[in-house]
Amino acid sequence: MSSQFAPSRPGTPPEHLKSPVTQSVLRIQNQIVQAARELLLEQGFVELLPPIIGPVTDPGGRGAKQVDIDFYGNRYKLMTSAILYKQASLLAFDKIFYVAPNVRLEPLETADTGRHLAEFHQFDVEIAGASQQDAMRVAQDIVTAAVARVVRTMGSELEILGRDPDAFAPLLNKTGAFEQISHTDAMEDLVRLGHEQNHDAEIDWEGEGILSHKSDSPFFIIDYPKGSRGFYDREDPERPEVLRNFDLIAPEGYGELISGSEREYDYARIIARMRETGENPAKYEWYLKMVRDGIPSSSGFGIGIERLTRYVAGLDSVWKATAFPKIPGVVSP
Amino acid sequence: MTGVLSAPGFPEASIRSRARDGARGVFPPMDGYGLTLFGAGGVSRPGTAEGGTDPLDAMRLVPPVFMPQRLEMLTELAREPLYGDVALDTEIGGFRSPLPFYVSAFGSTQVSSSGLGLAVSRQAGRLGIPLVIGENVVPTNGYADSSEQTGNGMLARLRAYESELPDGLGGMAFQQSTEDADAEVWNLLYSDPGAQPLLESGRLAFELKVGQGAKPGLGGMTVLQRATADRLAGQYSTDESVFDGGEQVLRCSSPGTFTAEILRQQIRFMRNNYPRARVWVKLPPGRDIHDAAQVAWASGADSVTVDGAEGGSGWAPSSFLDQVGLPLAECLRRLGSQPRSHCLLVSGRMWEGARAVKSLALGARAVGLGRAALLAADEDPEEGLARLVACLALETRMLISSLGKYRPAALDQDDVWLPGATGLGHLA
Known about the structure:
The complex is a heterodimer of chains A (about 325) and B (about 425).
Chain A: H1 13-18, H2 20-42, E1 46-47, E2 53-54, E3 68-71, E4 74-78, H3 83-89, E5 95-103, E6 119-128, H4 132-153, H5 155-161, H6 169-172, E7 179-182, H7 183-192, H8 205-214, E8 219-222, E9 245-250, E10 255-262, H9 267-276, H10 285-293, E11 298-304, H11 305-313
Parallel strand pairs in A: 1-5, 7-8
Antiparallel strand pairs in A: 2-4, 3-4, 5-6, 6-11, 8-9, 9-10, 10-11
Helix pairs in contact in A: 2-4, 2-5, 2-11
Chain B: H1 12-21, H2 55-58, E1 60-61, H3 68-77, E2 90-92, E3 95-97, E4 101-103, H4 110-113, H5 116-127, E5 131-133, H6 137-141, H7 154-163, E6 172-176, H8 185-191, H9 196-200, E7 204-209, E8 221-225, H10 226-231, E9 237-239, E10 248-252, H11 260-273, E11 278-283, H12 289-298, E12 303-307, H13 318-323, H14 328-335, E13 344-347, H15 353-361, E14 366-369, H16 371-379, H17 384-402, E15 416-417
Parallel strand pairs in B: 4-14, 5-6, 6-7, 7-11, 11-12, 12-13, 13-14
Antiparallel strand pairs in B: 1-15, 2-3, 8-10, 9-10
Helix pairs in contact in B: 1-16, 1-17, 5-7, 5-16, 11-12, 15-17, 16-17
């Protein structure tokens, strides 16, 4: 398990919704969404309403299953993430974002990580022509704006939740960019700390928890290896095997808040990367046709809104950051 | 249910006899005991390939006169060792197995959907030997098929296997090929409560199917009824020309495109996505089998399965069955000797001990029973496979001990001789 937080389960829907804790958390979440939205609109982003279903969705990683639905006799998917549509959206606008619902039937082992929901929401951001570092700056801006707004306006809610606003001082007092550490260095850190794992892979929950606990402010892990992420994260042309991507890790054991990357946009590269991730290109017909005709280069990311809320509100479990929690493997209304 | 299968060119009668009669099938018929004079070329090699051209069958196991390893065993036991002293337990792709055998995949073809899937699964579980479930089972037969009678669905086979599995032994490997990646077989299993006991006890593997044994270079082919084909139309291509638009349709899959980098990254991605499952890789008998296997092991595969071009349960064009792909013996030669950390599994016409022991001597960790397992279960759904495996284990012990060795891992290429070759160790 990645954190010191004890596993827990929600009560009945009325118990959960009437709880003062839930109500404070959801008020905080409102301010977070508001802060992000205002910031992005000020920066010239266009908010689009996200797609919910499609013939294909983000294949993702880490074993989460997609949900099939019948679309007039065709097998469609609920969005696990709208990454393919984000790239498509850049044909209309250069800077877009969604507040997007996603469904991922995560492996049962994630039920007690405190940070997985089968149904969750993301700020899904995509920027044409942007680099990895450009996207990271926007991600940092959003997190900082959200935390600042909650600290400024939600003092009494934080008090009800027992969340000390001073926990955010290192973040709010930061004048430059969040710290960045490469995946390779993070792995070496973990080995020094006695945590050995597969070096070609994602950082596991436990490892990420260790790194998160060490820090008092959010930080980026960048440049994950190929083989740990989906086909759309761009491989560095100068450094084969290295992806030009990033995660933002919250401190105090709260773990990953954001995943993002520069994107692959070249047709032949995408075909090769699809095969390298075990995908059957045939099912991506509409997407590949679009890519073949040309899409912009871009970078983007998704912020888990419930995860960001959990961090800001200081919650042990992410299910407390949603009105209608769906914990992996727990059959819920 | 019994007697529905046939296997031309395969020693069906001998397999059925062993599935029916058990260990006595290892010897010539008892009614000839004391009356018949036996010799080479008589009854001893009923499994030889049609025409006698199979190079693995043409080889002989060649016991030496001097046996230093037998002396070691004698010293340990303080008596002369016998074949019963051969220890066959081993590790197969991360699973403990009491025997160097496993049941290899048979897919969605009619032969494996006709009710034999459950019988084979149950018996393999009881034996504690690993079981591989083939590609296309989920897209074609379903995942949680409620028809427990036929055992078509993947979960039914899992339950049948697990229900009789001894603690700490065996494990199941589930294949996924490029096209059935659409059905998310691995994701389904990884998240399914029904698969958790195997997953939590380290007895779940996912096998990446890189190609077909019986038709290397082509993908899976099955003959479907038109209604089934219509249901799967969005997932698979069909060829209407083969059956002239009749009630049957040929479904053709692509095997998927692989390069060394694609294979390497797919294995890494499997390890990333399913860290608690074992990663197996099944290779077709391609001419670059050595390079492909090395890529798989270097990328972290727990086992590499090589399926010789020796036929199978699937539908394949006759020209492929007879003339395409490397025979298993040539695959083994090209693979060469492996460090013991590399788990190599082989299948192709396996059913009796000599072929199995030759394969073990030429580098395999274990051998897979495919058609033989189906025939044995077809002969007797309750005990057929168990009896066939008992025969195989008895022969394997006898053969290994005859070589003055007492573990499969002690075998090497010197134990095998190819007529016409000069000297020993000629395969290197």
